[in-house]
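FORM 12-B: Structure-to-Sequence Request
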């Protein structure tokens, strides 16, 4: 949206990726948006990939979701208590089915409005998940969507705020969508 408006107004759009900016990682807390319920080090976990790809100083500031705990509901409440309110920036992706974070089609977690962190009721792609809920996403100062190719239908619905997909229900004040088509 911002890119389209800039191109219409000025003929070009400038964008600097977060990863290439000089960030004071020592003063930056990195919270997870969602995580698969799996043991530490499992290749399915987002945390495993974050630890591999973030700079070492950022990894020191990671605040992982406690998905290996026996009591996931208590763990989600504990994670919520540690979240700043609001988050400064939330980075989201978009699934071909319109899911974002672990807000997946048909799961009761879509209707959670009294908590900022919740656990999915069912499995999605073989795993239960812990996720930020709509209230946490809506409160964020900035939401950044990075959407890769092959998700044209879901992207069109996201941009139209179509509530038939979970991502279309995200009510973000400041949202930037970057699509690689």
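FORM 12-B RESPONSE
SEQUENCE OUT:
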């Amino acid at each position: 949206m911002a890119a389209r408006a800039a191109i219409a107004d000025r003929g070009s759009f400038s964008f600097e990726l977060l990863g290439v900016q000089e960030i004071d990682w020592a003063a930056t807390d990195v919270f997870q948006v969602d995580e698969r319920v799996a043991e530490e080090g499992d290749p399915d976990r987002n945390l495993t990939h974050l630890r591999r790809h973030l700079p070492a100083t950022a990894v020191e500031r990671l605040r992982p979701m406690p998905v290996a705990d026996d009591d996931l509901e208590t763990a989600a409440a504990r994670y919520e208590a540690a979240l700043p309110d609001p988050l400064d920036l939330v980075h989201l992706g978009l699934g071909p089915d319109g899911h974002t974070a672990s807000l997946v089609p048909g799961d009761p977690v879509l209707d959670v409005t009294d908590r900022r962190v919740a656990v999915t009721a069912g499995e999605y792609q073989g795993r239960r998940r812990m996720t930020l809920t709509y209230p946490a996403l809506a409160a964020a100062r900035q939401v950044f969507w990075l959407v890769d190719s092959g998700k044209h239908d879901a992207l069109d619905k996201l941009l139209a705020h179509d509530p038939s997909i979970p991502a279309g229900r995200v009510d973000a004040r400041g949202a930037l969508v970057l699509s690689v088509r």
